[in-house]
Every structure is written in structure tokens, then in C-alpha cells.
Design a protein that fits this description.
The chain has helices at about 20-25, 75-90, 105-135, 140-145, 155-160, 190-195, 240-250, 275-285, and strands at about 30-35, 35-40, 55-60, 65-70, 170-175, 190, 205-210, 220-225, 225-230, 255-260, 265-270, 300, 305-310, 310, 315-320. The chain is α+β, with helices and mostly antiparallel strands. The protein has two domains: about 20-130, no CATH class; about 135-320. The strands form four sheets. Strands 5, 6, 7, 8 and 12 form a five-stranded antiparallel beta sheet that branches. It has a four-stranded antiparallel beta sheet with strand order 1-2-3-4. A four-stranded antiparallel beta sheet has the order 9-11-10-15. β13 and β14 (about 310) form a beta hairpin. The protein binds zinc ion (ZN).
């Protein structure tokens, strides 16, 4: 008999349930983050000596079904649960002749990589307090450290940020709902066209560029990812700068910091070409209390110079141009 795993359907034709249902039966409620990965309560939770972080226990259904908890004290309970989980998914009929297939070398390598990532995430979460201390960069200091003086001409800040794109890049600028209808084609223009506007046209822009003739800000229409915008709803404006600086240490290049005229700051980084670094960031950023939704290519960010209620969105940091600024109107 086969014990290949198909998470979407049961591995055994005659079994009535899917692997995800069986896993929930063994582990209790699972918050699925992907079709094959979710978070559950650790089966050995009561032995945890440090505080449970809510996402400490992960269940994977790809390769060999596995529960993995970041704590060490629950090891015995987790191992016992893994036996139960694997038997329930791979041998749901209780076939006595069933033998657990050994993972291939490739699967073992992937499992090892997966475990390494779990540990990275835990390390990032645990090191946040020391990152906030060591890389401290409060609002006033960010403003003072800006290579380009952005204490002046706030009404032109949007031009400075657009100048970080290429002149022919098609950029979306709009309100949150300016997307999805043919008339929204007007929200997709090249940087050069946008710069003909007299003032900041709308509240939002997207850090990615779009295909020509787009009218929907969907991921399918994204042509290139120019910037990675990092934001935290949980860290204060005086705290989040430490994360921006720390990310600089990790190899990201900070291009701009935008005061959103709300509670948060947006750190604009050159989008990393290194796919591996990007994968690490997907893990690390949420552990550093940064918002993972900003990792989505088509997510809008705040356009400096635009008004948000009574307050103006503005740049508080801008890196020096390495090449000449794209454009000045007239
Ligand atoms: Zn545990």
C-alpha cells in the first residue's frame, strides 16, 4: 500500500476524510496558514516553562505529517503525538501490515530546512527586545539622519519618493478602492506622467510597478517589485526605526521612511533580489511585530505629501540619489 501524502484528499481511497480533518481530529483546532501548514495547541503545552507565543506549535502535512513545537520541554508529548498523527493519516484503516515509508534524502533535507526556519522565527521573536535597544532609532533621530533634507517642502515629498522609481515605471496611485474597474486605468500611469500633476494626487501608492494598460491592482498585473515596505501596527513610531536599522544590518537597503500621519511609519527598502533573504524576511518580519500583509506585491502604502484628515503624510528619511533624480516638472 502507498503512503504518499496528498493533503487535499485522503491518501487512502476508502478513507472518508481528508488529511486536514484527520489532523484536526488528533490535534484539536488548527489555524491553517497554508493548505499544508497550520498552528495548533501544543500537545505538551502544560510542560512549557516559558510563555506560549500562540504560534509556537506548528503542524505540517507536506512530506511526513509532523507537529513541531518551538519549546523543548514538551518533546516527549510531541513525539507521541507525531506517531499518532502519522498513523492516523498514513494508515487510517489500521492495516497491520502497514510500514511507515522512510523519508527520502530530499525530504529529510526539506524537513531539516523547515525546522531551521522555525528556530529562526523563535530567535527573531526572542531577540526583539534586544533589537529595540541595540538599534534604537527614534523618530527625531531618523529625521535628523536623513541624507536628503526632508524637513522642508513637504508638498513635494511625493515627487522625491516617485523619483526612486524608473521614469517609465507604471505606478498605481489612488484611493484604497481605485482599482478593479476600467475607469481605474487612470490610476496607472508612468512616473513621468504622474510627475506632471501639480500636487500629490491621492493618499496611496503601490511599491510595485504594473503592466501597461492595467486597471486592477492585482498581483497578476504586477510587473516588478521595486520596494519592500515594512510597517508595524504594534511598535510605536519611536520603536519601529530600530527594526529598520536592524534590517539594514541584514542586508536590506533603506530608501525612505514615510510618516503615515497615523500611528506608524513605513520603511521603504530596495526590494531584495536575493530570494533566500526574501524567504527569511517572510519568517522574521512577523516575529519582529511587522505586518506581513505589506509583503504582498499589490498592497498600497501611504503617499507622502497627501493629506490624511488634518495631517500631512510626509517623508522623514530619504536616501541620496545614486543616479540623477528622474524629473522636475518644467
Ligand atoms: Zn510545546
Amino acid at each position: 500500500m502507498t503512503n504518499e501524502i496528498n493533503p487535499a484528499s485522503s491518501p487512502v481511497n476508502t478513507a472518508p476524510r481528508t488529511a486536514t480533518e484527520i489532523a484536526a481530529n488528533v490535534l484539536g483546532e488548527i489555524a491553517w496558514a497554508s493548505p499544508t501548514m497550520g498552528y495548533c495547541e501544543c500537545p505538551g503545552k502544560k510542560s512549557h516553562s516559558s510563555k506560549d507565543g500562540g504560534k509556537d506549535c506548528v503542524v505540517y502535512l507536506d512530506h511526513v505529517p509532523t507537529v513541531n513545537c518551538l519549546h523543548a520541554s514538551c518533546k516527549t508529548a510531541v513525539e507521541a503525538t507525531n506517531k499518532k498523527l502519522r498513523a492516523a493519516i498514513l494508515n487510517p484503516t489500521g492495516d497491520a501490515s502497514f510500514e511507515m515509508r522512510k523519508p527520502t534524502a530530499e525530504e529529510r533535507a526539506r524537513i531539516a530546512e523547515r525546522d531551521l526556519k522555525s528556530r529562526m522565527q523563535l530567535r527573531a521573536r526572542k531577540s526583539l527586545p534586544s533589537i529595540l535597544k541595540k538599534y534604537r532609532w527614534p523618530y527625531a533621530e531618523i529625521l535628523n539622519d536623513s541624507p536628503v533634507d526632508v524637513k522642508v517642502s513637504e508638498e513635494n515629498h511625493w515627487r522625491l519618493l516617485l523619483g526612486k522609481f524608473q521614469p517609465d515605471d507604471v505606478v498605481w496611485i489612488g484611493e484604497r478602492d481605485s482599482s478593479g474597474k476600467p475607469e481605474n486605468a487612470a490610476n496607472f500611469r508612468t512616473v513621468n506622467e504622474w510627475l506632471k500633476c501639480e500636487w500629490a494626487p491621492h493618499q496611496f501608492l503601490c511599491p510595485s510597478t504594473f503592466k501597461n494598460n492595467s486597471w486592477s491592482r492585482s498581483n497578476e498585473n504586477v510587473l516588478a517589485r521595486r520596494f519592500l515596505v515594512v510597517e508595524s501596527d504594534l511598535l510605536t513610531r519611536d520603536e519601529v526605526g530600530a527594526v529598520f536599522r536592524y534590517l539594514g544590518e541584514c542586508g536590506l537597503k533603506l530608501v525612505a521612511v514615510v510618516d503615515t500621519a497615523g500611528k506608524s511609519l513605513h520603511g521603504w527598502f530596495e526590494f531584495p533580489a536575493d530570494e533566500e533573504l526574501m524567504n527569511d524576511l517572510r519568517l522574521i518580519l512577523p516575529a519582529l511585530k511587522c505586518d506581513p500583509k505589506m509583503l504582498t506585491a499589490s498592497q498600497p502604502a501611504r503617499l507622502p505629501s497627501a493629506m490624511r484628515g488634518e495631517k500631512r503624510q510626509r517623508l522623514i528619511f530619504l536616501a541620496k540619489e545614486e543616479t540623477k533624480l528622474v524629473n522636475e516638472v518644467n
